[in-house]
Amino acid sequence: MESVAEQVPMYIGGLAVPAHDGAVLRTFEPATRRHLADVPSGGPEDVRRAVAAAREAFDEGPWPRMPARERARLLRAAAERLAGEAAEFARLEVRDNGATLRKARGADVPGAAAAFEWSAWWAEHVPEREAGGGGSYVLWRPAGVVAAIVPWNLPLLLAAWRIAPAIAAGNTCVIKPASFASLSVLRLVRLLHECGLPPGVVNVVTGPGAVAGESLVRAPGVDLVAFTGSDETGEAVRQGAASAGTSTRLDLGGKSPNLVLADADLAQAVTGVTWGAFLHNGQVCMAGTRAVVHAAVHDEFVRLLVERVGRLRLGDPLDEATDLGPLVSRSQARTARRFTELGLSQGAQLACGGGSPAAGELPEGLDPAAYFRPTVLTSVGERDAVAQEEIFGPVLSVIRAADDEEAVRIANGTRYRLSAGVWSADPARARAVAERLRADRVWVNDYRLVDLELPGRAGRGASAVWDRLTNELDSYRRRHTVHGGGGEEEGRPAGPPTPYALLGG
Ligand code: NDP
């Protein structure tokens, strides 16, 4: 295999640096297995330096102290640069994690630019000071040094949604991208520095999660760990951060259901369920990987679904006509196969898919072992592994339900609480079902159009997903209450008698 890889540095204290011991991680293009780049394999010493740089930038640097509108100016410049370099960022994401060009161009890069644009708006409009009664007031202060750890499925988008609100609120941060896909995050951090971000405000350390990630979670000097990833790692992060006395914000996995009721428009439901389950090969936290279908329409729904899924085009992710590219790695395709086989061994039926394409079925140069056909399993039992575990691959489990009551019970029967869809021609019936689902976001006759003005994080179960915009910002801020110091300029009447609590007897 010919190597055309470049060496990409990480950023600590505004400087482009290798790992202090020179170690590197090799990054491969999933579609072709070509060696794409080498990134630093950071360890505890790199993390220590990055946290020290972020700490210094927070404690002594200009960023947390500058007026919010100045921070907003830099965030807008970043949004403009991202939009201007959209084509390059999109191609990089495609080559690094196997996203299709259509998705990278249509969602990932614009979504990342929007994170900076909107965070700039909040920085200017969300008050940093609120008046209380009797001259008291509350200051909203940045949390401090934020350690952000992101997964490989949407590297640029998720990094932008961690960095932008955090720095808009005046924090500094250290970000650790996933080992499979870190190039777009490294390029984003380079872009921020080119826009004039002061040194140390955003630092990036690449390297294995078990080394760089764990050191970061436990590092003294970090005030908040914002982790996005699997439940299992999330639990390790929760414990590691707790041992260091650091608070966490965890955005974890999902096993979301789509409920197809007896009166659903089946053509519409099939389209929604198909894209809900198979967008980005199901490598999305909110993927609707369970279809809970009323018995009266089950067989017809499955027939239409299999026909629709059969028309999805696997191919070169850089080709605009491709619906599904490779998974992020051969190992992720093996995970999809392992779960499919487990499902079949527990009694499920294979309706379509079930394996990688044969050699010769894909355009020349693509690696079939990194691909997995979109797979539909029927006759799945609600307690089967494929109905309970997040596979993070293109495997959809169809579960039959006798009525709405049973559909709700099945839908609520996993440990996840991320999102859900309800398909019905009757708005009242759909609402009655939607309101009983234990999910932070529920769609009716749609899947995935997120209204960011509405809350999406209830903190229940093992999952969480993007929240209302202002809540996003608030998760990187802390209240600082000053009793009685504001005086008349606070502009609020003393109000009802204050319910004082006497502390300390
Ligand atoms: P992982 O949990 O395996 O990894 C996530 C990140 O954590 C990576 O950067 C990883 O580094 C790092 N990491 C691994 N081990 C540790 C450790 N011990 N301490 C600290 N950090 C560590 O998740 P995946 O990358 O496989 O991503 C898929 C998961 O992310 C799915 O469960 C998905 O549902 C979830 N997700 C949730 C979202 C949400 O908003 N709720 C959004 C997107 C994804 P390395 O890559 O080097 O191992």
From TrEMBL:
Belongs to the aldehyde dehydrogenase family. PANTHER family: ALDEHYDE DEHYDROGENASE-RELATED (PTHR11699). Residues 24-463 form the Aldehyde dehydrogenase domain. Residues 479-505 are annotated as: Disordered. It comes from Streptomyces klenkii. This is Aldehyde dehydrogenase. GO terms for molecular function: oxidoreductase activity, acting on the aldehyde or oxo group of donors, NAD or NADP as acceptor. InterPro entries: Ald_DH/histidinol_DH, Ald_DH_C, Ald_DH_CS_CYS, Ald_DH_N, Aldehyde_DH_dom. Keywords: Oxidoreductase. The keyword Nucleotide-binding does not apply. PROSITE patterns: ALDEHYDE_DEHYDR_CYS (PS00070).
